[in-house]
Structure formats: structure tokens, C-alpha cells
Amino acid sequence: MSDLVKMDIRSSIALVTLNRPKKLNALNYATNEQLLALLDEIEADPATRAVILTGAGDRAFSAGGDIHEFTESIKQGVDIATREFCRRGQAMTARLESFPKPVIAAVNGIAFGGGCEITEAVHLAIASDQAVFAKPEINIGIPPTFGGTQRLPRLAGRKRALELLLTGDTFSAERAYEMGLVNKVVAHEELLPAAYELAERILRHSSLAAARIITAVTRGINTTIDEGLRIEREQFARMAATQDVREGLDAWIARRTPTYPGV
Description:
The chain is α/β, with parallel strands linked by helices and 263 residues long. The protein contains eleven helices and ten strands. It has helices at 29-44, 67-75, 78-98, 114-121, 148-156, 158-167, 173-178, 191-202, 207-220, 225-240, 243-254, and strands at 5-10, 13-18, 50-55, 60-62, 103-107, 110-112, 124-128, 132-134, 170-172, 184-186. The strands form two sheets. The protein has a six-stranded mixed beta sheet, with helices on both faces. Helix 1 runs parallel beside helix 3 (78-98), helix 5 (148-156) packs across helix 6 and helix 9 (207-220) packs antiparallel against helix 10. The two termini are 33 Å apart.
């Protein structure tokens, strides 16, 4: 298997890199499949507690779906194109969104189309001041297909999202921050250090609790408040009998730093 996606694990954090720099890290079908396979591997490894996702090279996080490959699917008919392109891309962003370990995008350059949709889907994102975003699908006559018509309005608001979706215009890292698409904008050379620093701040705490929080937010955000509160209670109940809760409470009472597995 070629290394279309690379992984390097350091201090319980997996650095996952989209690795097609000559193609601006475009998301062909094989890249999506390798990313999903690596996420499965990371989820199964208790020693790996967080993910940083970035792009190879100096130009792009990801320029989006591989248009040449998608064009061939379109030629084979709507059903094939929907299955091969749309469903595969949606499965990838949904997996990132619901992944039980924190996923931080380190957006190092162009984040167009599917690259922007990955940024929308992950739990947290830090952008280089050289990052550029766009929702350019309208330029080739299609709507976004990896979740962009749904997640961007929820993050940025309907009118701001529609402006970007209907014009296809590029927008800066600063505007992405103002809209809630990224958590922070940093100097380009500080991007990965900032992503690692954020991951390490999260990993001071219980990984079980982090997973329960991610689940509650991901499942609850698109429901009614009553249903969301029910989900919150369920996630609390899953934590209440764990050793992590007992350790957290004991440490708080004793005024000491808690010790969790992997910390």
C-alpha cells in the first residue's frame, strides 16, 4: 500500500498527514480509504490518545476531492458517482466528526472543497496564517458532497455559509476564525507546535471523559434540547462508575493532580 496517508506517533499523539503534495493532497478514493484504515488503527490503540491531521508540503492541507477521478465516476452514471464519490466522502468526514479521540486539523495551506469539509468535521482546528479556504464546488456545477452544505451553516450561520457556497469565493484564515471554522490562527512556522500544545492540554485529562464529551456534542448538536440532555445523561451514566471518575474526585478532594491511564 502506498503512503497516501502517513502516520507518526509521538507522546500519545498521532500525526496523520495527507500525502499527495504534487496533487495538493487531493482526496482520491484510495486516500479516503487509507485515512479510514488509519483511524481504525488509532481507535484500537489505547496508547494513542489524540490525532493531529495535516497536509504534506508547503502549499496545501487538501485541495478537495480528486476531480479527475470523480469525472470518471460521473461518466459511469449517477448511481456509481453517488456511491463512489459522495458516500465515500461523507463516510470519511462522519468518521472524523464522531471519532472518540480528539482530532485537531492543522490547516497548513489550501483547504478547498473536501479539505474545507474535513476542517468543518473535525473537533478542533488551528490554521496557519497562510491557509486559504473555499467552497468552490459550484464552479463545477455541483453542491458540496462531503457534508459542506450541512456543517458549514451550523458553524457559520445560514447566510454566511450560503454566501461562500453560492459564490465559490476564497476566504482567509482570519475569516475562518471569525466564523467558527477554526479555533485559532497562528504564524505558519508555529502551526504544528500549536496543534501539539492544544493536544497536550486535552491529554492532561481523562481520555474516557473526552470521548464521552465528544459523543454528547456530536450526537446532541443536531437534536432538540430535550433529546440532547438525554444524550448528556447517558454519557454521564457511562462515566459515573469508572475508575477515572473516582480518581478525578479523589484528586480534587486531596488537592492533587489526578493520574489517568496514559497520562
